[in-house]
Design brief:
Largest sheet: 9 strands, mixed
CATH superfamily of the largest domain: ANL, N-terminal domain
Distance between the termini: 49 Å
Number of domains: 2
Shape: globular
Structural class: alpha/beta
Number of helices: 19
CATH architecture of the largest domain: 3-Layer(aba) Sandwich
Bound molecules: adenosine-5'-monophosphate-propyl ester
CATH class of the largest domain: Alpha Beta
Helix content: 25-40%
Radius of gyration: 24 Å
CATH topology of the largest domain: Rossmann fold
Strand order of the largest sheet: 2-1-11-10-12-13-14-15-16
Length: about 575
């Protein structure tokens, strides 16, 4: 089944701009990253993501254009032009330089989506330091693990989140500064802590941006694997070339668009597409501080006349659950293009978009490591509902077998792989070169996803090749959850899996074996869930805990999560020859 987007758009009459990419084959054939660089105005060795996203527009005469329309959770609306952004980020860069923050220092930002989060992150990029935004719902433990792993020298946070930082700061030897931002409010910073507002008030709004080059570090996002704690995927300033290109050709951004990406900058989608892609294209962007709410979301689209909307399958499923009536009661006619990423988008979600809003959702695929969209359903091509789409021009994607050979027969399952290189790809896992190298084999970058490709080159997702859990589009590493659980005195061992869920795709489920002297009880189950939520935060902690007398392990002592999952799903247990159990 293919869905002809052009036909659908003709029907709803909202194709107000021809797509930027109108001929996929020709664009692919003629693709040159150098041409994109030139298009982005990159002439010499200087590349800085903050400059490309902000200052450039001011110098090109677009300073008075609105860059950010911010809507607070309480309904307050603030607007910032590119010139406002330039001044604010310059101020913050001056603050950082005065504090002694230098090139490649790691600066963490642990805040809700307030305007200052964006000023701070771009300020970090202007001094050439590495910005590491963290999801504000994280509990103290994931924050501590990440700051430790990257030896962060500073955490920028808000009064509401400060208690979580206070709980761990003594345990972070690399930490030199804690800065507190009060959005439109005074803060009472503890002794020794820095007050964002006071420092910004004293800082100059002129700043000479660090002369960063394409390969200089810019941003770090943590991502989970099967084993060990999260790894810091480090990106470089040159990635903006990928953000700009995918913003233009995959998101189809036009100069007059009002773009809304619902993702948080704590995850890569919220920076690559909640900052760099729209702003490098000079597009006005809506930023909403709050979380999901069907009515509120439709109101945001209507109020700000959003034209291009980027969201995720869990949100789409929640909208579907609310029914199309709420959507139809709003004027959503401003919308021109809708996209989805992070988890498989079922054909029903694509079709529902047409029925409720008049437009289909375009699925696309990428990862923290790839930094930008790699595979997408393009605006000029018919959508194949259920497929992630075609490789982006300039990107070579393939399905490979266990010997790292390309599988050319259509619809054969294998691992999804990419040819290494390209501007937006991560350049390392911070201080874990070995792990980074393990992702490249036989001339391919291994994505860790299973997929197949049809005869026309469209990719179809099958599943992950590892134990990482995808809950509402957020990856959770089982080891991080197991570690938190075994820190409880009652827990002897824990095994954590993703349990399929109709709404969130997967939820985190833990199997727990208790130490001698502890008995399973409803009370203890609740206590363990509370313990995990307190440490990890609600998005990472298990939603379900099941007590077991022991966990299946390999002879070398590794918990067999796959077996736990097979048992949970009532599936065949597969090869259990390495099982050590009774
Ligand atoms: O398993 C794939 C899934 O999300 C993983 C990447 O997650 P993360 O590193 O957090 O990056 C988020 C940026 C999109 C992938 O390895 N995934 C992502 N997009 C899709 C998807 N699974 C199915 N369909 C997609 N469109």
């Amino acid at each position: 089944m293919a869905m002809d987007y052009a036909e659908i758009v003709k029907e709803v009459g909202s194709l107000r701009a021809p797509p930027n990419l109108d001929d996929y084959e020709r664009t692919r054939r003629e693709w040159s990253w150098d041409r994109v660089r030139a298009d982005l105005g990159l002439r010499d060795d200087f590349v800085n993501q903050a400059y490309q996203c902000i200052d450039r527009h001011v110098y090109d005469g677009r300073g008075e254009k609105t860059a950010m329309i911010w809507e607070g959770a309480d309904g307050a609306i603030e607007r910032y032009t590119f010139e406002d952004m330039r001044r604010q980020t310059n101020r913050f860069a001056n603050v950082l330089r005065k504090l002694g923050v230098r090139k490649a220092d790691r600066v963490f930002i642990f805040a809700d989506r307030i305007p200052e989060l964006y000023f701070a992150l771009f300020g970090v990029l202007k001094v050439g330091a590495i910005g590491a935004p963290l999801f504000s719902a994280f509990g103290p433990e994931p924050v501590a693990e990440r700051v430790k792993r990257a030896e962060g020298m500073m955490i920028i946070t808000t009064p509401a989140l400060l208690p979580k930082v206070n709980a761990i700061r003594g345990d972070l030897p690399s930490l030199k500064h804690v800065m507190v931002i009060g959005h439109r409010a005074a803060v009472t910073a503890a002794e020794g802590d820095l007050d964002y507002g006071a420092l910004m008030a004293e800082a100059s709004d002129e700043f000479e941006i660090e002369r960063t080059g394409a390969e200089d570090w810019s941003i770090m996002h943590f991502t989970s694997g099967t084993t060990g704690l999260p790894k810091g995927a480090a990106h470089v300033h040159g990635a903006v070339v990928g953000h700009y290109a995918t913003g233009k050709y995959a998101l189809d951004l036009h100069p007059d668009d009002v773009f809304w990406c619902t993702a948080d900058p704590g995850w890569v989608t919220g920076t690559s597409y909640g900052m760099f892609a729209p702003w490098s294209n000079g597009v006005t962007q809506v930023i909403y501080e709050g979380g999901f709410g069907a009515t509120r979301w439709y109101d945001i689209i209507q109020r700000h006349r959003v034209t291009v909307w980027y969201t995720a399958p869990t949100a789409i499923r929640m909208l579907m659950k609310g029914g199309s009536r709420i959507a139809k009661q709003r004027d959503l006619s401003s919308l021109r293009y809708m996209m989805s990423v992070g988890e498989p988008l079922a054909p029903a979600g694509v079709v529902w978009g047409v029925e409720a809003i008049g437009l289909p959702f375009h699925d696309n695929w990428w990862q923290t490591e790839t930094g930008a969209v790699m595979i997408t359903n393009f605006p000029a091509l018919p959508i194949r509902p259920g497929s992630m789409g075609l490789a982006f021009p300039g990107i070579e994607a393939a399905i490979i077998d266990d010997e790292f050979q390309e599988i050319t027969q259509p619809m054969q399952e294998g691992q999804l792989a990419l040819r290494p290189g390209g501007p937006s790809m991560f350049r390392t896992y911070w201080q874990d070169e070995e792990r980074y190298n393990s992702r490249f084999k036989g001339g391919w970058y291994l994505t860790g996803d299973r997929a197949k490709r049809d005869a026309d080159g469209y990719f179809w997702f099958i599943g992950r090749d590892d134990d990482v859990i995808n809950t509402a589009g957020h990856l959770v590493g089982p080891f991080e959850v197991e570690s938190a659980l075994i820190a409880h005195p009652a827990v002897a061992e824990a095994g954590v899996i993703g349990k399929p869920d109709a709404m969130a795709m997967e939820i985190v489920k833990a199997f727990v074996a208790l130490k001698d002297g502890y008995e399973p009880s409803e009370e203890l189950r609740r206590e363990l869930i509370g313990h995990a939520r307190q440490r990890l935060g609600p998005g990472v902690a298990p939603r379900e805990i099941e007590f077991v007398s022991s966990l299946p392990k390999t002879r070398s002592g590794k918990i067999m999560r796959r077996l736990l999952k097979a048992r949970e799903l009532g599936l065949p247990e597969g090869d259990t020859s390495t099982l050590e159990e009774d």
